Amino acid sequence: MKNSNAEINNPCIKEQELTYKCFNDHNFDKAACQLEIHNYKVCKSFWHSVKQQRIKDGLRPILPPVEDRESIKQEYFSKHHN
């Protein structure tokens, strides 16, 4: 049974689930799951930096609401990947 609040508390739930699926599909062979592991780490790092900035800016909640996350990602990538 899935935790209905998982996405609220973990913005990287999709990447986490893909990593777990890869581990299950490849008998927990990390070498076979490098892409999934990398994507999960990048996601965690990104949202950690967002939370740190929100703390610095005095914004609450520290982790943005689910409905705002896509626009936050798009804004970041438009500024940093042109």
TrEMBL record:
It is found in: Mitochondrion intermembrane space. One of its GO terms (biological process) is mitochondrial respiratory chain complex assembly. One of its GO terms (cellular component) is mitochondrial intermembrane space. It comes from the Eukaryota. InterPro entries: COX23, Cys_alpha_HP_mot_SF. The keyword Mitochondrion applies. Keywords: Disulfide bond, Mitochondrion. Belongs to the CHCHD7 family. This is Coiled-coil-helix-coiled-coil-helix domain-containing protein 7. The lineage of its organism: Eukaryota, Metazoa, Ecdysozoa, Arthropoda, Hexapoda.
